[in-house]
Amino acid sequence: MVQVSFSGGRSSAMMAKIMLDNYDRDELIFMFANTGKEMPETLDFVNECDVRWGLSMVWIEYCPINKFKVVNYQTASRNGQPFEALIKKKKYLPNKVTRFCTSDLKVIPMQRYLKSIGIESYYSAIGIRYDEQVRYRRLKQAKQDVFTYAFPLVDFKITQADVLNFWGGQGFDLKINSAHSNCDFCMMKGIAKKVAQAKLMPERVQWWIDMEQLIGSRFNTEYTMRDLLQLAKQPELFENKNEIELSCFCGD
């Protein structure tokens, strides 16, 4: 059995179509784990791929009581509820080192869903491309208890240029800039990207500010999310600000 992890980005969506066209449909389970902080356009895109291609997508969210719950496009959280529930349970914030949002909001709920339907071991296909060798090698070496990573885009030697060409011919596309990625203000993004995004959608920063105030901590050691919003409002304060950007499962 292959669990196809649909992150909501263009690469993972292309991977889903490749899997659908090249593998036994009965062996595939397409899954999207919603944190509640994905861009609205991401949810629209997941739903459109599902409807157009007949993926029978399983939408999963973290639930503090039952550990996971099955939702759908209409009922999926859009205001950070699963993420907030996890933060309140743990009583601390994720950061670049302790990135529990990926494991606890995505990997583990999907794993628990599969176990609930009797699937104890499986392959997990993720949308890392052939031109992302650092990410590929890191995850290739990762040891998991109940699943083994599969890399269809690496196997098919799919690069970012191939992904863009693919979507140029589909008649529909993800309606967000690749620079924004799916999780709106993920701590893994560099500050320059987040400041640029905050200029366009300052209202979406408020949730992150609220979570920092709730816990009395911050997502990034160098600045608070309120600082980020201020930088977006006063570009002159942004000079000489720099931050290394790291990859995440939430990407394009």
In total, the number of strands is 6
Strand order of the largest sheet: 4-3-2-1-5-6
Tell me the β content.
5-15%
**Helix proportion of residues, in percent?**
40-55%
Find the structural class using helix and strand composition: alpha/beta
Question: What's the order of the H and E elements?
Answer: EHEHEEHHEHEHHHHH
Report the span from N to C terminus.
25 Å
The global form is: globular
Helix count, DSSP H or I runs of 4 or more residues: 10
CATH class of the domain at 2-168: Alpha Beta
What is the averaged pLDDT score?
Answer: 91
Q: Sheet with the most strands?
A: 6 strands, mixed
The named CATH superfamily of the domain at 2-168: HUPs
Are there runs of 5+ residues with pLDDT below 50, and where? 243-247
Quick recap:
This protein has 252 residues and is of the alpha/beta class.
Notes on the protein architecture:
The chain is an alpha/beta fold. The protein has a domain at 2-168: 3-Layer(aba) Sandwich (Rossmann fold), CATH 3.40.50.620. The protein has ten helices and six strands; from the N terminus they run βαβαββααβαβααααα. It has a six-stranded mixed β-sheet, with helices on both faces. A hairpin with a 7-residue loop joins β3 and β4. The radius of gyration is 18 Å and the shape is globular.
